[in-house]
Amino acid sequence: MRILAANWKMNPETVDEALRLASRIDTLLKDLPLVKLLFPPYVYIPLLKLENLTLGAQDVFYEPKGAFTGEISPTMLRDLGVGWVIVGHSERRNVIGEVDEVLRKKAEASLRYGLNVVYCVGERLEERERGEHFSVVERQLSFVPRDERVVIAYEPVWAIGTGRNATPEQIEEMHAFIKDRVGLKVLYGGSVKEKNAGELAAVEGVDGFLVGGASLRPEEFYRIGVALSR
Ligand code: PGA
Asked: What CATH number does residue 200 fall under?
């Protein structure tokens, strides 16, 4: 089954709004034949009761407990019913400064403690312009555990939150490249909207979407899911 994942990032700002959004999404997506995942901020995780979506976390630490101020462990997440984590989102790589070695540890710890992983890869604009996108992604993939509980999300940095999605040709060739290297499922992420969802869902090698901005708009997110399940 294809995967539809909502990455809320650091949104919304209140519990009330998070509860409202989650329940609307849970109701709307009920009958879509997809694996449906919701990645809210950590603090909302214990408050959200979902019947049709599986909860995920946007990040995770690589130790189960201990003196790691500010971090959240894979075992804590498991205890709250979380099934998935995102590792290596480009905002964590580029804004927070996470490096590949740390991401490998996070992915390995997640698997060890029973979590599935969405592992994000993708090149920056200047890397694509220099023709380095395949080598950048290949390097990122070399840190990914080869385990079928890992799903790759290809998210070109220049397409995230910019309204500028990658073209079907760019997606098809990169997904084929990734599958050839790691043999895992590959989601596309980067400005997936209802207006481009049909075209992107038809691309060979797209096993699902990781959706940011549009996942905060339940009706639009639902219509993206409809396009993906056709
Ligand atoms: P976007 O974000 O859909 O807002 O571009 C995607 C992501 O960062 O996962």
From this structure: 3.20.20.70
